[in-house]
Amino acid sequence: MVTYAPFPPDDDEGLTDGVLVRRFVAWVFDAALVGALMAAWFSFATGVTVLTLGFGVGAYGLLPAIPLAYSWISLASPLSATPGQALVGLVMVDNARFTRPTILQALIWIIGYWLTLGLLCLLFFLAIFTLRKRCLHDILAGVVLLRRANLHRLGEGTG
Q1: What percent of the chain is modeled with pLDDT above 90?
Q2: Helix (H, G, I), strand (E, B) or coil at 44
Q3: Alpha carbon of 134 to those of 19, 65, 96, 117, 141: distances in Å?
Q4: Which of 14, 32, 141, 159 sits in a 20 to 30 Å window from 63, CA-based?
Q5: Where are the alpha helices (DSSP H) in 19-102?
Q6: Lowest mean pLDDT: which of 2-6, 70-74, 80-84, 109-113?
Q7: Domain segments of the chain: what residues?
Q8: How far apart are the C-alpha atoms of 87 and 154, rounded to whole Å?
Q9: pTM of structure
Q10: 129: three-class secondary structure by DSSP
Q11: Which H or E element spans position 14?
Q12: 79: Cβ contacts below 8 Å, ≥ 6 apart
């Protein structure tokens, strides 16, 4: 497992510089990708339903699982980021140990993220005021999103 060298608290601003804008761009990319995956599954489910004369209607029930699986699998992967986050150079790490998030942390983050979306995104604005630009779901999961380039600048350790 890769561990990153801890950084001094006064360098938080340098590591999180530009993270909020990158998070937004990543969100747009991920939303488009999830939309495309859901459209593909919807088309597949429609085809199965038509071909089976209605018996395949249960395939539509998997549609809500697509965004959850997309995020969970991405965050628990070695990338430690969704494809959108990786594209803009972000990485999610455990806030205390600077290791990849655990599967449980990824699940807590995703549930909190979707609850935040359900609350009209109001809790996203918390990131403007918090140390390390963390949203409420980041804090609850014990993770932080950092720029990968800045994290590697600090040097990698082993662990």
Answers
A1: 59
A2: helix
A3: 10, 25, 13, 15, 10
A4: 141
A5: 19-51, 65-76, 83-87
A6: 2-6
A7: 2-158
A8: 21
A9: 0.83
A10: coil
A11: helix 12-16
A12: 86, 91
